[in-house]
Design goal:
Helix content: under 10%
Order of helices and strands: EEEEEEHEEEEE
CATH topology: Lipocalin
Number of strands: 11
Strand order of the largest sheet: 1-4-5-7-8-9-10-11
Strand content: over 45%
Number of helices: 1
Distance between the termini: 14 Å
CATH superfamily: Lipid/polyisoprenoid-binding, YceI-like
Structural class: mainly beta
Mean pLDDT: 89
Number of domains: 1
Low-confidence stretches: none
CATH architecture: Beta Barrel
Largest sheet: 8 strands, antiparallel, barrel
Radius of gyration: 17 Å
Shape: elongated
CATH class: Mainly Beta
Length: 177
């Protein structure tokens, strides 16, 4: 955690997931299979670190090909016209954990968001590389990002909930040099 050191997301040991209520009765979960990110260490360890994450919306996987096709369409993520979901933020200590404040951009709409983050460990990989793990969680309202599509279910409730839970289980590798 040397000041100014760069850490990159190891996608083979990381996962980006989401959760949304379906019909007001159960959650549908999914993940983004393609993503990248980096952290530039602050002057006092993780505190003050800059974070950048990019997700490929076309890589969404909710375990249902038909639903995934709808999610990447213009009704939702419009992956053809907006090929990236981006986040830039700053890490701050919050007691014995962290918060990450920044701007999330979906479909060209930027909004300030806050995520809770917890360091899950720091150690050395089998090839001598330095590694660090984090669990990052937060919630957004999809309508804040222009994701307004919905229909009423037979019982009168909405098919797709407005609140999206986000969870990032991230393993970082310290970049060489």
């Amino acid at each position: 955690m040397t000041a100014g050191s760069k850490w990159v997301v190891d996608p083979g040991h990381s996962e980006v997931r989401f959760k949304v209520r379906h019909l007001g009765i159960a959650n549908v979960t999914g993940r983004f299979k393609v993503f990248e990110g980096e952290l530039l260490c602050g002057r006092d360890g993780w505190d003050g670190s800059e974070v950048r994450v990019t997700l490929n919306p076309a890589s969404i996987d909710s375990n249902n090909a038909q639903r995934d096709g709808h999610l990447v369409s213009a009704d939702f993520l419009d992956a053809e016209n907006y090929p990236a979901i981006g986040f830039r933020g700053l890490v701050s200590e919050a007691g014995d954990s962290f918060v990450v404040d920044g701007e999330l951009e979906i479909r060209g709409v930027r909004r300030k968001v806050r995520f809770a983050a917890e360091e899950t460990g720091v150690g050395t990989g089998r090839f001598g590389d330095k590694r660090a793990g984090f669990e990052v969680r937060g919630k957004i309202n999809r309508k804040d990002f222009g994701l307004h599509w919905n229909i009423l279910a037979e019982g009168g409730g909405l098919v797709v909930g407005e609140e999206i839970g986000l969870q990032f289980d991230i393993e970082l590798v310290q970049a060489k040099g």
